[in-house]
Design goal:
CATH architecture of the largest domain: 3-Layer(aba) Sandwich
Strand content: 5-15%
Shape: rod-shaped
Strand order of the largest sheet: 3-4-5
CATH topology of the largest domain: Rossmann fold
GO molecular function, one term: ATP binding
Keywords: ATP-binding, Coiled coil, Nucleotide-binding
CATH class of the largest domain: Alpha Beta
Number of strands: 5
Helix content: 55-70%
Structural class: mainly alpha
Distance between the termini: 170 Å
Radius of gyration: 63 Å
Protein name: ATP-binding protein
InterPro entries: HerA_C, P-loop_NTPase, T4SS_component
Largest sheet: 3 strands, antiparallel
Length: 338
C-alpha cells in the first residue's frame, strides 16, 4: 500500500499525538484482504521501528474496530503470524487493541496476548450468550470481591469491567469501573466533515499527488520476462556452443584426414626416392663395371703385343748388369797385384 507508516507517529506543533483514522469501509468487505493489510502494517512497523523496551507510554496505539471481521475467514497460518507479531511488537513501543462486541469473536491464541481488557455489558438470554459470558469472564484475573460472570450481565450504561497491566507487567485483578463519557461526535461524520479533516491534516497534499508506481503485477511480469529472456539466451548459447563443438569436430576430422593423406603422400614420396636412389646406384655400378671391363680388355690386348719386348728388355738388363760386375771385379784384382 502507498502508505508511509511514520506519518502515523507524527505529532502536532505542541508535541501531542495525532489521531489517524483509516477509512477501511470498502476494505472490510474483503475480510481476507483486510486481515492481510493488518498483518502487513504490523510487520512493517516491527521491521522499521527500533527496539525501545518497556516505555511508560507507547509510541503508537492501534484500535481495530469490528475485530471479528479480521478473523472470520483468516486461515490458521495467518492467525499464527498475527499472534506472533502482536506478541513481539510491544518491544517496538506499539500497542494493539481489538474492539468487538463479543470476546469469543477473537481467537484464544490472540486473546491471550491482550494484557489490557475493557468489557462492557453482555446480555445472556440464550445458551450461546451464556457461553459467551462465561468465556468473557474467564479472560479476567479473578477478584474475590466480584463475581465476574454475574457482573458482566449487570453492567449498566457507562460501566465496564476493566483489567490493566500493573508496574510489573502483570494483569491486575478485574475491577468494576465507570467510563468517562465521550467528548466527540457520536455517529458517522458527513462527507463535508471528512473533507475538512483531510484538508487540515499535516500530511495533506502528500497522498493526493498521483504516483505511478510499479505494481506487483508489473514487477512479476518483468521477472517472468527477464527469466524467459535469460532462458532464451541460455538456449541460444547452448545451441551456439553445440554448433561450435560440431564445427570443431568436423574440422578436427578433416584435419585428421588431411594428416593421414599427407602421411601417405610422404610415405609414397619416400618409397619413390628410395627406388630412385637404388636405380641410380645400380646404374653407377653398371657404368663402373663397364669401364673396368673395357679397361681390362684394352690392357689385355696391349699386353699381348709387347710381352716379348718386355722379356727381352728385362733379360738384357740383367745381362749387362752381370757384365759390369765382372769388369769391376777384374779391375780390383789387377790393382791389388800391381
Amino acid at each position: 500500500p502507498a502508505l508511509d507508516l511514520y506519518d502515523m507517529i507524527q505529532t502536532d506543533a505542541n508535541g501531542r499525538g495525532v489521531v489517524n483514522i483509516l477509512v477501511a469501509d470498502r476494505l472490510l468487505q474483503s475480510p481476507k484482504l483486510y486481515t492481510t493489510f493488518l498483518l502487513w502494517m504490523l510487520s512493517e512497523l516491527f521491521e522499521q521501528l527500533p527496539e525501545v523496551g518497556d516505555l511508560d507510554k507507547p509510541k503508537l496505539l492501534f484500535f481495530f474496530d469490528e475485530a471479528h471481521l479480521l478473523f472470520d475467514a483468516a486461515p490458521k497460518p495467518l492467525l499464527d503470524k498475527i499472534e506472533q507479531v502482536v506478541r513481539i511488537i510491544r518491544s517496538k513501543g506499539v500497542g494493539v487493541f481489538f474492539v468487538t462486541q463479543n470476546p469469543i469473536d477473537i481467537p484464544d491464541v490472540i486473546l491471550s496476548q491482550m494484557g489490557n481488557r475493557v468489557q462492557h455489558a453482555l446480555r445472556a438470554f440464550t445458551p450461546r450468550d451464556q457461553k459467551a459470558v462465561r468465556a468473557a469472564a474467564t479472560t479476567f484475573r479473578p477478584n474475590p470481591k466480584i463475581n465476574t460472570e454475574q457482573a458482566i450481565t449487570e453492567l449498566g450504561v457507562g460501566e465496564a469491567l476493566v483489567s490493566f497491566l500493573d508496574e510489573r507487567g502483570m494483569p491486575g485483578v478485574v475491577e468494576r469501573a465507570l467510563i468517562v463519557p465521550p467528548r466527540s461526535q457520536i455517529g458517522p461524520i458527513t462527507p463535508e466533515q471528512r473533507r475538512q479533516l483531510i484538508t487540515s491534516s499535516l500530511v495533506y497534499g502528500y497522498y493526493e499527488k498521483p504516483l505511478e508506481r510499479e505494481s506487483a503485477y508489473e514487477m512479476l511480469a518483468k521477472q517472468v520476462e527477464r527469466a524467459a529472456a535469460e532462458a532464451t539466451a541460455l538456449e541460444a548459447q547452448k545451441e551456439a556452443e553445440a554448433r561450435a563443438a560440431k564445427e570443431a569436430e568436423r574440422r578436427a576430422r578433416a584435419q585428421a584426414k588431411q594428416e593421414v593423406m599427407r602421411a601417405k603422400q610422404l610415405e609414397r614420396w619416400e618409397r619413390e626416392r628410395q627406388r630412385q636412389a637404388e636405380r641410380e646406384a645400380r646404374e653407377r655400378q653398371k657404368v663402373v663395371g663397364d669401364v673396368f671391363e673395357a679397361f681390362a680388355k684394352s690392357a689385355a690386348r696391349s699386353l699381348g703385343g709387347s710381352t716379348g719386348a718386355l722379356v727381352r728388355g728385362i733379360l738384357g738388363g740383367l745381362s749387362s748388369r752381370q757384365s759390369r760386375k765382372r769388369r769391376e771385379s777384374a779391375f780390383r784384382e789387377s790393382r791389388q797385384r800391381g
